[in-house]
Amino acid sequence: MNPPDVTLARQRFAEGLSLYQQGDYTGAREKLEGAYAASAAPPVLYNIGACLEQLGRLDEAVDAFEAYLADAPSPRDDVRARIASLREKIGR
Fold it and tell me: Which residue, 2, 40, 58, 84, has most beta carbons within 10 Å?
């Protein structure tokens, strides 16, 4: 495994957030996945989940939020509630 490329990860993360704010959730997800590939920083998974949720890909969003929680430095009850809400919507 290659060492994290923090500079590249930050660049892609910033680009992803900008695209998300512009409503380009597909482009944002792609940039954020590139950021995660460059550094594997858990917070990026949360943002990928948010993109997937906006795209209506709820199963994948749940998976991303759960992966985020598995690596998050501290418990996040708000994310657990979001997962529960998404599961309710998809009947899972």
Answer: 58
Reduced to 3 states (helix: H, G, I; strand: E, B; else coil), residue 24 is: coil
Give buried/exposed letters for 28-62 (b at 16+ CB in 10 A, else e): bbbbbbbbbebbebeebbbbbbbbbbbeebbebbb
Domain ranges of the chain: 6-90
The residues, ordered by sequence, that sit 6+ positions from 21 with a Cβ below 8 Å of its Cβ are: none
pLDDT grade for 3, boundaries at 50, 70 and 90? confident
For the record, the structure tokens of 36 come out as 């995660």
Q: What is the DSSP string of 60-87?
A: HHHHHHHHHHHH-SS--HHHHHHHHHHH
